[in-house]
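Much of the work behind modern protein science is quiet bookkeeping, done one molecule at a time. The protein below has been through that process, and both of its lines are reproduced in full.


***
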Amino acid sequence: MPQFHTDPVLIEACLAGDRLAWDRLVERYSRLVWSIPRKYGLTREDAEDVHQTVFAALIHHLGELRDRDRLSSWLITTATRECWRLRRAATSRNARLSAHRAEAGADDSVEVPLPETDVQDELRQLVREGLERLNDRCRHLLQALFTNPDEPHYPQVADQLHIPVGSIGPTRARCLAKLEAILRTLGVSGP
């Protein structure tokens, strides 16, 4: 299976008609797109509609993307706008229903659940994208240190990456600073 480390490479492959590239793109961003309607508290059916609409729009506009390094931002914006559109439509329907109930003398008190605020999928996706933008050395070091569920052992990491054990700490600090700067450009704020 071909490797698509960056979004621009993946997009080029999609534009060239590579079906595996499209599958990889959808796999890479599906959870991110699903997280947006969940954040807005939309129903499962509406979330499915948002998901389908966003990827249909992406197919249509893939060749027109100006900044292919910011694909996740485009997807977030598109999904958010689609959520707003659906909520406006629902609000309009609810207003008409309320007016109809008021005319009929029915009670209009309906409890509305609070929207989910889980943005973890979105943050994970942005971190993955940030890692992809790092140079190979930083990406490999951070993955070796932070993606293994066990405590990282510096001698093993140093051997795996062919770097001195004493340089892991300072290199890690520089790489994390680079990742933080990249995440800020992607819209992630905070510590």
Remarks:
- The two ends are 36 Å apart (CA to CA).
- The chain has two domains: 1-116, 134-191.
- Residues 1-116 form a domain with the Rna Polymerase Sigma Factor; Chain: A fold (CATH 1.10.1740.10).
- DSSP finds eight helices and no strands in the chain.
